[in-house]
Amino acid sequence: MRYLSVLLLAGLVASAATVAAAPDLTFMSTQMRPITEAEWVRTVLLPPFTTETGVPVVFLGAEEPELTNRILAEFEAGRGSLDLVGDLHGNFLVYYGALKDLGAELAQLEALGDRTLAQSFVELGRIGDAQVYIPWMQATYVLVANKKALQYLPSWADPTTLTYDQLYLWAKKIYEATGEQKLGIPAGPRALLHRFLHGYLYPSFTGAQVKKFDSPAAVLMWEYLKDLWQYVTPSAPLLDSMDTALLSEEVWIAWDHTARVKTAVMERPDDFVVLPAPAGPKGRGVITVLAGLAIPQTAPDPASAYQLIEYLTRPSSQVAILEGVGFFPVVTEAAGAVPTGGLKVLADGVAVQSASPDLLVSIIPGGLGARGGEFNKVYLDSFTEIVIRGRPIKEVLAQQGALLDALFRETGAPTPVPDVYLP
Amino acid sequence: MPRTPALRSLASEKALPYWLILPTIAYVAVFFLVPVVQALLLAFRTQDGQWTTRFLVRMVQDIQFVSALRFTLLLLAIIVPLQLVTALFIALLVNTRFRGSRTFLYICAIPLGISDLAAGLIWFSLFTQHGYINSFLYGLGIIERPIFFLSAQNTGWVLGSIVLAEHWRATAIVLVILVAGLQMISRDYLEAAEVFGARSWQRLWHVTLPLLKPSLQSALIIRTILALQMFAVVVAMGGRMVPVLAGEAYYWYYLYRNTNVASAYALLLMVISALLAWGYLRFLRPREVRP
């Protein structure tokens, strides 16, 4: 017993020494790691916080394994130097046991009354019984429509609550009126088509990204996609992003990552509207690349870390982040605070999508390690075989489904969101 | 210091050539042989050093494998003969030494200096929806709306465009080799044939072509191997619609991040190249003329 108290005392002295030697708040993040972004965080985003609170912040960009290993090592050692951690949802799943429960801090934030954190994101941050992280910022994929296309939208359809059936009718009507296939889905060699398949269509039609890969609902989904593809621009298999196709008006309606339509919307903000992705029978399947903020259990200064979380989730900081590095707010009030122009058009669209009542959030599966690329390949190959080459759907799904099962079995990757919620 | 016999033989004149080629050998060993062996090992060994055929099996069973192999061989079978005939035709034309033949040769060789991806993009910009060909046809009033040459509905058009682009881009290398070969053929043979009353096509068939065999052989080997590696043009114009073996190797390496399967593809390409090269060497061997 005495031995233990000596150890404890030694630990206290040691941590006191660390605090005394480094009073700075240490903030490590896998996001905003590129040099120019990290520089922006240090010189633009954080200085007002230091001026306000008197707490200097050391911002460290880190690769995913570096951050994970450091947190786990500090947790095992029982003392650490990291105060605040910024990371993606999928990575938190690996080390959430080493993080502090932020339930009280969340309540404190919400009590401030100036910010409404998107509820679906807050729930994602609840892992096990703890609020492991506070939502920080997001990237996602949306629909962008040229305003010329809106007149062809079926009159009973609301563009902000579009369904996949309505999207089909819309594209069909444009084709019948103009003779051109004006729907854009990027399917080039470097396109993000796989995200559309596993994170948008699959959850919307089957309620899952992976679990229902080879199911009757999936067959219906592929039949739908084959039908829809008649109205997709024939050059889609060569398009890697939708920017240029939107600007050249080769397409009028396009689905893509926000970063890959940004140029078009920024260049001609008055010509485009940004809409939520369509919904299917099981909901509005949407991928969120969600970054959160967490405090390690071993953080030397959790109180200041909370202050920094409070600062970073303010609507004004959220807007600054959008303008600085292009990540979208997770706080509803922020969308209204974006000045004007293309960025506002984009932010409004993303905000409407995040607030959709039938939203079915998907998180890009983590834990596949180096084999994440093979996960994408399963979906891309299925697409090529079914839609481009016209092979029988069931045959392809059986073959590719076996590969998908093997991939999850061999890597031991956790079941992704939203599949985990299925019975 | 007295020299030992070993040292003396190392410094002898007999050893000199070996010293001189040593840098080349070292270069080839370090930058060619070692990577080849490493690639071979990658195709057959897991990360923890277990020997396996798993990666080969994965490659062969892959859903894209058969299409990739088929498209590669199909493109090879169309492009190489086509280029050989064109190059031979131009080479014979140049060899007549007409006025301006040198300038003509230089113009024909221009595509040699253009990177294959750039060539792919040039042709892509010709064939694309708002490309030069469509604009031209539209301008003339021949078409009402753009034709999609490069689309999944028209794999034939896509293949045709790739063949055209490759034909434009890589015929020059064959041409240059054949022109050099033709210039090495002594006029005496042709004059002798003429004396014996051979017509011009007989001279071509019985004198020029047989004497050109070594050049044809080199041109075929080089061109076939390059055609097997063809990839940038195909990706620029065919995207995912036309898979080829070299493209699959690239995708497995960069997109699917599986170096083992990528190596298996590289190995397959090497085996096909070696077999075809052996075939050319075996069947195009210049016959010894016996008295």
* Rounded mean pLDDT score of chain B: 87
What percentage of residues of chain A falls in helices of 4 or more residues?
Answer: 40-55%
Shape verdict of chain B? flat
Return the CATH topology of the largest domain in chain B.
Answer: MetI-like fold
Q: What is the total tally of β strands of chain A?
A: 11
Descriptive labels:
heterodimer; A: 423 residues; alpha/beta; D-Maltodextrin-Binding Protein, domain 2; 2 domains; 9-stranded mixed β-sheet; two-stranded antiparallel sheet; B: 291 residues; MetI-like fold
Question: Could you characterize the architecture of this molecule?
Answer:
The complex is a heterodimer of chains A (423) and B (291). Chain A has 423 residues and is an alpha/beta fold. Helices cover 50% and strands 14% of the residues of chain A. In chain A, the strands form two sheets. In chain A, strands 1, 2, 3, 6, 7, 8, 9, 10 and 11 form a nine-stranded mixed β-sheet that branches. A two-stranded antiparallel ribbon of chain A has the order 4-5. In chain A, a hairpin with a 2-residue loop joins strand 4 (126-127) and strand 5 (130-131). In chain A, helix 10 crosses helix 11 (216-229). The longest helix of chain A has 20 residues, at 2-21. Chain A is globular and about 65 Å long. Residues 6-22 of chain A have low confidence and may be disordered. Helices cover 74% and strands 0% of the residues of chain B. Chain B has two domains: 16-52, no CATH class; 65-283, MetI-like (MetI-like fold, Orthogonal Bundle), CATH 1.10.3720. By secondary structure, chain B is mainly α. Chain B is flat. Chain B has 13 helices and no strands. The longest helix of chain B is centred in the N-terminal third of the chain and has 31 residues, at 65-95. At the A-B interface, helix 18 and helix 19 of A face helix 11 of B.
